[in-house]
Amino acid sequence: MHGTRYDRVSGRLACVTDRTGARHARLTWSTAADRLVRLEVDGAVVDGAVIRDPLLGDAHTVGDTTMTALDWARPAEIPAIAAPGRLPFGAGAAILNTIARLGRDAGVAALRYAGPYPTAALWRSLARSFRTDADEAAFTAGALDRAVRVARDPIPIDFVPAPHERIAIPGGFVELRDRVERAVIDRIGYEPGGSPARLVEAHGPGSGHHCEVWFGDACHARIATLAADGSVVDGPHPVPACTSPVIGRAFPAVLREALAELIADAVPAPLAADARALCAGSDLVWADLGARAAAEQPGGFAVHAALWDRIAPLGLARVALALAEALAPVVAAAVARRAARVTPPA
C-alpha cells in the first residue's frame, strides 16, 4: 500500500524492504520452508533453533535474552520475552510486527499472549500490529501475579493480525496502515494523543501530521512535519533546551508521598501498593528530559521542568495531577521490571 516490497522464497516471506530501500526484516527458512532458521529485524536477531530455557521452557535466543518458541510458519501465540529490556530500542515491536504479518499470511484468525509479562508497554506494542476488542485494563489485570509465578497460560484476549508498514525517515521511522499512525524520531515515539510527544493531524493542502512536544495544553516545540505518505517535509529539529529555574531541585518527602497516592490510583490495581512504596521511597527531581515527561534514573525518578512552567499558573492541584499522569507509566514499568526479577518458589 505504501511501497513496501515483500520478497518470498518457496512461498515464505523472506525479506521486507520499504520504499526507501531500507530493509526491516529478513527471514531465512529451512530447505523444507516450514521452519525458521533466522529472523533479522532492526536491532536484533532471532535464532530459530529451539533451546530449553529455565524460565520459559522451549525458547529461541534473541539478542542477549530468550523468547518462547513459535511455529513461525503459522504463529498462534504472541511470545513472551524473558528480559525485554535487554533488546535494543524498537526490536521487540519489529519482531511482533513480523509475527503479525506471518500470522496474517498463514490465515491465522487471532493470537493470544501466554506469558508472564502483560504490561502496559507490551499492550501498546501489540496495538501497533494487532487489532483487539479488549482494553488495556483487562490485559494488564493480572500482571504482578503472572510475573511472580512466571505464568504460561494464555490470557483470553484475541489479537487479530494487522501489521503496519515501517518506512525509514531521517532520525527514525514512521508506521503506516491506512494512514500514518506513529512516528519515531531520535528514539521518541509520536502518537495521536501522546504525552508529551504527540502526532497531531495537520490541516490544509495535502494534509499530513506534525510531530510535536506538548506540556499541559500548549505546544512546547514542533519537531517535524510529515506528508500524508509519511515522508518528512520539515525537520526533524532538536527539542529546545529547557531553562526553567526549578531544574535540579528535589521534591520534599511529603510531596513525594502525596504523589505516591495519586500514582497508586493511576496504575493497574495489582501494581498499586508497590508503585506507592517505590515512589514515596525514591528521590524525585525536576530535570530537562527533552521530549519525555518523566524518566527513571539512578536512585529514583525525574520529571520535566516544563511541566512546572506550563501548569503551575493553573494551580497546584493541576500540577499534582499532571505529575501523577507523567510518572504513573514510568513507575509502573519500574515495578514490573522489579517483579520480573522475582524467582518464583520451586
Main sheet, how many strands, which sense, barrel? 5 strands, antiparallel
Enumerate the strands of the largest sheet in spatial order, edge to edge or round the barrel.
1-2-3-4-5
- Taking the alpha carbons of the first and last residues, their distance comes to 51 Å
Q: Spans with pLDDT under 50 lasting ≥5 residues? A: 342-346
- Beta percentage is 25-35%
How many whole angstroms does the radius of gyration measure? 21 Å
The 3D shape can be described as: globular
> Could you tell me the mean pLDDT?
91
Helix content percent band: 25-40%
Oligomer: single chain
Number of strands: 23
Query: How many alpha or pi helices?
Result: 8
Alpha-beta classification: alpha+beta
Which descriptors would you attach to this protein?
346 residues; alpha+beta
Structure characterization notes:
This protein is of the alpha+beta class and 346 residues long. Helix content is 26%, strand content 31%. The chain is built from 8 helices and 23 strands. The chain has helices at 91-105, 120-127, 136-140, 143-149, 253-266, 272-280, 306-311, 316-340, and strands at 5-9, 12-17, 23-29, 36-41, 44-47, 51-53, 57-62, 65-68, 77-78, 112-113, 130-131, 160-161, 165-169, 172-176, 180-185, 188-190, 197-201, 209-215, 218-226, 232-234, 283-287, 294-297, 300-304. Strands 1-2-3-4-5 form a 5-stranded antiparallel sheet, with helices on one face. A hairpin with a 5-residue loop joins strand 19 (218-226) and strand 20. Helix 5 runs antiparallel to helix 6, helix 5 (253-266) crosses helix 8 (316-340) and helix 6 (272-280) crosses helix 8. It starts with a strand and ends in a 6-residue tail after the last helix. Residues 342-346 have low confidence and may be disordered.
